Amino acid sequence: xxxxxxxxxxxxxxxxxxxxxxxxxxxxxxxxxxxxxxxxxxxxxxxxxxxxxxxxxxxxxxxxxxxxxxxxxxxxxxxxxxxxxxxxxxxxxxxxxxxxxxxxxxxxxxxxxxxxxxxxxxxxxxxxxxxxxxxxxxxxxxxxxxxxxxxxxxxxxxxxxxxxxxxxxxxxxxxxxxxxxxxxxxxxxxxxxxxxxxxxxxxxxxxxxxxxxxxxxxxxxxxxxxxxxxxxxxxxxxxxxxxxxxxxxxxxxxxxxxxxxxxxxxxxxxxxxxxxxxxxxxxxxxxxxxxxxxxxxxxxxxxxxx
Length: 306
Ligand code: NAD
Fold this sequence. Notes:
The chain is α/β, with parallel strands linked by helices. Helices cover about 40% and strands about 15% of the residues. Strands 8-7-6-9-10-11-12 form a 7-stranded parallel β-sheet, sandwiched between helices. The site of nicotinamide-adenine-dinucleotide has 31 residues, from helix 5 and helix 6.
């Protein structure tokens, strides 16, 4: 089988070497398309591929249509809003992600952003500590769970809201269960977002929730920019001069936010939650292993379009 890695933003060399070892070791061929500058290059490269590994690359219905032999596509990472699942399903292509492989990297960044905002954006002046503050975790998945674990080391009080995770599974980690989103926001000095971008969650974080945060509250977004209602964020930051917003995914109106609110807002220059050597390698190797297992045994453990 031919396995194509198509990455506009390439994997680290160690990851590609590791993927090659796994793929070729299982008797398949590896092809590489890196730093492509037009989708036409993607269409051409995918034409005879049996399997596809991508990072944030968009697997649109056009890509799916061009991929005549494709049987499986794996997004090396957690979020999979770059895959057109309906188009994959229509063609009988199995789509997977590699959940959990970059979670620690994202969790560490979330805590790092909290420290940054609590310490005057690393400029002189008196800051505050995370110890004793309440952290509200919105979505208790792979990243959310690790954020709870790391935040415990800082001595934070932790609560979480996730309607799809049984309360017992949250409580056993020593994390309080929020009765509702309103409950989470009204009690948390920091709210850390770990929801996926879905039809239900897009633009769901706005004025109504943010205005409930206690004085000095800070929203931490390492999830997706799409979950924020950006106009309402602007409104609430203007009204509440104590609130802060820190994000790994710059808002569409980030320049305006920066100009209006100065040190109360911060966006990383480029999404970097998963940008660690470890996460990069872990996700790439997991993708290769999942593909080889799928071809060898039909395993579909991480299939998204069931
Ligand atoms: P995950 O699939 O392990 O967990 C997602 C959690 O969200 C699940 O527990 C699910 O029950 C919960 N959920 C779904 N809808 C919800 C809702 N409406 N309200 C509350 N909870 C809800 O995913 P993960 O690995 O923890 O990643 C979370 C998100 O973080 C990803 O979807 C992705 O968008 C983002 N992410 C960002 C980066 C980055 O570079 N900044 C890297 C990895 C992941």
